[in-house]
């Protein structure tokens, strides 16, 4: 078959330098280090900030804008990914990557300065400043995530890429371990501002490596830029992400007019985008790529993988907090076993793909293990031992690990050299969209399931209990439902705090009684509903003469104190029973809810596996052989381009 032609506007792809052949290995490693550092910046920023957010919100007085610190970063980062990918194909990876790092570092510095006096009321104050600057960070970070993976395809032969793509997956895993620990340390010992300032030295080192050692890595093509397509990508993805974010929030809901209008705007932009892309000579996302089975099935699989992957991390943390009793501040590091499995799976699968020369079977094995991990997690209950949860997390991580780098490898191996940037970034874009949509769907499942599970489990706990305990359980059920709708947002109260509240209440009551006795008038106390009924009746039978002498008043107080002590002891006993029953009921409800989410995750992961099955199992050419291209897809001529 004949080779399809590159876009017009410049020299042919054959004129492009084959960097995989001409660059010394040492230079490649230096480029790799700089690229990994840049990617580490982006990955770290997504985890390091979460630990510091409570302190940031307290300092900047912006609890009502809490979620937007993350949302602004997500919106800008996701929307720009395909645009940067296309620009890197036209202008080269180096200038786009350096631009992204510079913008990211500028955003980091400004985030650290948010709320400082010299910024005044810019954008309305400290919290809004942080949100705007986080958006700027995301604008730059999108270049890091979209271009970094394409650089591997530029400087290494197809058969070598696997071992290095695995390192990129490991970077994301490593950042999820280091981020919460470093964020907590900096916030507690220096200042939350250093959570952002720490990016500056790492970024400058990355810039030094990239500026001094990386060639331009351009395709040699100079087609017209698809400005309309770029705008439509933004007007489609941003409203869609906003609609998914608002729809999952109780104050909006999916039928809110604002949410529906955002969905409608996204749909109109998508239709316009498809129309424009089908007619532009060098579109942001060439629709012809979807005629390539590896690309089409690969990005579909990454969409479902993104949904399942983020759901695994997010809701596993909630389970650990609400059922296993891990503190909220430690929830990020509690998923370290999953991360360790992910790193091992990512690196090992990349090495195996490079040695074996094929990737499809490794992806299928990983997805099958991922499905097995989700099945194990779907068996979680309120009594699952923590050691078993760790084992399940490792299995899931080992399954997710191979898919992250190998899908990128498969897509890069199946497209033309001048399409690697846009194809790689498109895969990343679909994965991030899957993560956002998956989070919204799973969040809706969490809210709706808890709404039925909590009352059901509390009704079961009330069976056979005294009336006083049942009344307290009903109050606890209402509080637990409110906490569930907030998705377990804080540390649960301990029994010590409950007991201390009871003790303080009885001490206050005795103080009121003591004042009344010393004053010689008990009439107000006999009408006080907060006092035990037996005590009120006893107070009514105390003769007035008993309060006329010091000795008489002391005797009355001793009698009342004894009764109050007995009442307090009974109240603590009932509270202990209510606390144990309500804690158990909420844990069972939450565990049942999370297990249901993981049952759905099995289905989502199965869809990713089914999308992988039709992908061609193409061989990865070794250095000097040339890339065989997408076999059977009319691109066999790629061998002349790669070798």
Automatic annotation (TrEMBL):
<feature type="domain" description="Major facilitator superfamily (MFS) profile">
    <location>
        <begin position="31"/>
        <end position="480"/>
    </location>
</feature>
<dbReference type="Pfam" id="PF07690">
    <property type="entry name" value="MFS_1"/>
</dbReference>
<dbReference type="GO" id="GO:0005886">
    <property type="term" value="C:plasma membrane"/>
</dbReference>
<dbReference type="GO" id="GO:0022857">
    <property type="term" value="F:transmembrane transporter activity"/>
</dbReference>
<feature type="transmembrane region" description="Helical">
    <location>
        <begin position="297"/>
        <end position="319"/>
    </location>
</feature>
<feature type="transmembrane region" description="Helical">
    <location>
        <begin position="389"/>
        <end position="411"/>
    </location>
</feature>
<feature type="transmembrane region" description="Helical">
    <location>
        <begin position="29"/>
        <end position="53"/>
    </location>
</feature>
<feature type="transmembrane region" description="Helical">
    <location>
        <begin position="135"/>
        <end position="157"/>
    </location>
</feature>
<protein>
    <submittedName>
        <fullName>EmrB/QacA subfamily drug resistance transporter</fullName>
    </submittedName>
</protein>
<dbReference type="InterPro" id="IPR004638">
    <property type="entry name" value="EmrB-like"/>
</dbReference>
<feature type="transmembrane region" description="Helical">
    <location>
        <begin position="258"/>
        <end position="276"/>
    </location>
</feature>
<feature type="transmembrane region" description="Helical">
    <location>
        <begin position="164"/>
        <end position="182"/>
    </location>
</feature>
<feature type="transmembrane region" description="Helical">
    <location>
        <begin position="194"/>
        <end position="213"/>
    </location>
</feature>
<feature type="compositionally biased region" description="Gly residues">
    <location>
        <begin position="626"/>
        <end position="635"/>
    </location>
</feature>
<feature type="transmembrane region" description="Helical">
    <location>
        <begin position="597"/>
        <end position="615"/>
    </location>
</feature>
<dbReference type="InterPro" id="IPR020846">
    <property type="entry name" value="MFS_dom"/>
</dbReference>
<dbReference type="InterPro" id="IPR036259">
    <property type="entry name" value="MFS_trans_sf"/>
</dbReference>
<feature type="transmembrane region" description="Helical">
    <location>
        <begin position="96"/>
        <end position="115"/>
    </location>
</feature>
<keyword id="KW-0812">Transmembrane</keyword>
<keyword id="KW-0472">Membrane</keyword>
<feature type="transmembrane region" description="Helical">
    <location>
        <begin position="361"/>
        <end position="377"/>
    </location>
</feature>
<feature type="transmembrane region" description="Helical">
    <location>
        <begin position="225"/>
        <end position="246"/>
    </location>
</feature>
<feature type="transmembrane region" description="Helical">
    <location>
        <begin position="331"/>
        <end position="349"/>
    </location>
</feature>
<keyword id="KW-0813">Transport</keyword>
<dbReference type="InterPro" id="IPR011701">
    <property type="entry name" value="MFS"/>
</dbReference>
<keyword id="KW-1003">Cell membrane</keyword>
<feature type="region of interest" description="Disordered">
    <location>
        <begin position="621"/>
        <end position="643"/>
    </location>
</feature>
<keyword id="KW-1133">Transmembrane helix</keyword>
<feature type="transmembrane region" description="Helical">
    <location>
        <begin position="65"/>
        <end position="84"/>
    </location>
</feature>
């Amino acid at each position: 078959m004949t080779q399809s032609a590159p876009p017009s506007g410049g020299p042919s792809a054959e004129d492009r330098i084959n960097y995989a052949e001409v660059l010394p290995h040492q230079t490649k490693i230096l480029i790799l280090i700089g690229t990994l550092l840049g990617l580490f910046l982006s990955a770290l920023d997504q985890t390091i900030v979460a630990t510091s957010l409570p302190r940031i919100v307290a300092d900047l007085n912006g609890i009502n804008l809490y979620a937007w610190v993350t949302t602004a970063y997500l919106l800008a980062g996701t929307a720009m990914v395909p645009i940067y990918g296309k620009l890197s194909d036209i202008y080269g990876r180096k200038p786009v990557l350096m631009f992204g790092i510079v913008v990211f570092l500028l955003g980091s510095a400004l985030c650290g300065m948010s709320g400082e006096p010299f910024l005044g009321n810019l954008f309305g104050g400290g919290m809004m400043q942080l949100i705007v600057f986080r958006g700027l960070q995301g604008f730059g970070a999108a270049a890091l995530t979209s271009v970094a993976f394409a650089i591997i395809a530029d400087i290494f032969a197809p058969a070598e890429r696997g071992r290095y793509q695995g390192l990129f997956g490991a970077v994301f895993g490593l950042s999820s371990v280091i981020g919460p620990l470093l964020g907590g340390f900096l916030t507690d010992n220096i200042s939350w501002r250093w959570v952002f300032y720490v990016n500056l030295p790492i970024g400058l080192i990355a810039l030094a490596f990239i500026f001094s050692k990386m060639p331009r890595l351009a395709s040699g093509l100079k087609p017209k830029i698809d400005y309309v397509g770029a705008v439509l990508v933004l007007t489609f993805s941003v409203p869609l992400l906003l609609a998914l974010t608002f729809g999952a929030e109780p104050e909006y809901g999916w039928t809110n007019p604002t949410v529906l209008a955002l969905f409608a705007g996204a749909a109109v932009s998508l239709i316009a985008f498809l129309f424009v892309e089908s007619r532009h000579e060098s579109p942001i996302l060439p629709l012809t790529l979807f005629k390539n089975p590896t690309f089409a099935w690969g990005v579909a699989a990454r969409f479902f993988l993104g949904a399942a992957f983020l759901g695994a991390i997010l809701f596993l943390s909630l389970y650990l907090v609400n059922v296993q009793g891990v503190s909220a501040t430690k929830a990020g590091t509690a998923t370290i076993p999953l991360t360790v499995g992910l790193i091992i799976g990512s690196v090992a699968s990349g090495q195996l793909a490079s040695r074996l020369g094929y990737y499809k079977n490794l992806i299928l094995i990983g997805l099958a293990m991922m499905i097995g991990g989700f099945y194990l997690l779907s068996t979680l209950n309120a009594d699952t031992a923590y050691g078993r949860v760790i084992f399940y997390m490792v299995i899931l991580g080992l399954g997710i690990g191979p898919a992250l780098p190998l899908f990128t490898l498969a897509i890069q191996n199946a497209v033309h050299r001048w399409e690697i940037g846009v194809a790689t970034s498109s895969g990343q874009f679909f994965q991030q969209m899957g993560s956002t949509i998956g989070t919204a769907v799973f969040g809706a499942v969490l809210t709706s399931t808890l709404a039925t599970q909590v009352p059901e489990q509390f009704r079961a706990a009330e069976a056979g209990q005294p009336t006083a305990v049942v009344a307290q359980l009903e109050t606890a059920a209402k509080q637990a439902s409110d906490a569930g709708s907030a998705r377990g947002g804080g540390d649960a109260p301990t029994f010590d705090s409950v007991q201390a509240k009871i003790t303080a209440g009885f001490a206050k009551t005795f103080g009121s009684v003591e004042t009344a006795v010393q004053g010689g008038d008990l009439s107000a106390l006999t009408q006080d509903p907060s006092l035990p009924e037996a005590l009120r009746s006893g107070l009514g039978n105390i003769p007035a003469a008993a309060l006329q002498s010091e000795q008489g008043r002391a005797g009355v107080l001793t009698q009342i104190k004894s009764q109050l002590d007995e009442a307090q002891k009974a109240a603590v006993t009932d509270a202990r029973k209510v606390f144990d029953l309500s804690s158990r009921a909420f844990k069972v409800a939450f565990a049942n809810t999370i297990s249901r989410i993981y049952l759905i995750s099995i289905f989502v992961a199965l869809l990713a596996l089914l999308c992988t099955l039709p992908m061609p199992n193409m061989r990865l050419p070794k250095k000097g052989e040339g890339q065989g291209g997408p076999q059977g897809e009319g691109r066999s001529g790629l061998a002349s381009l790669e070798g």
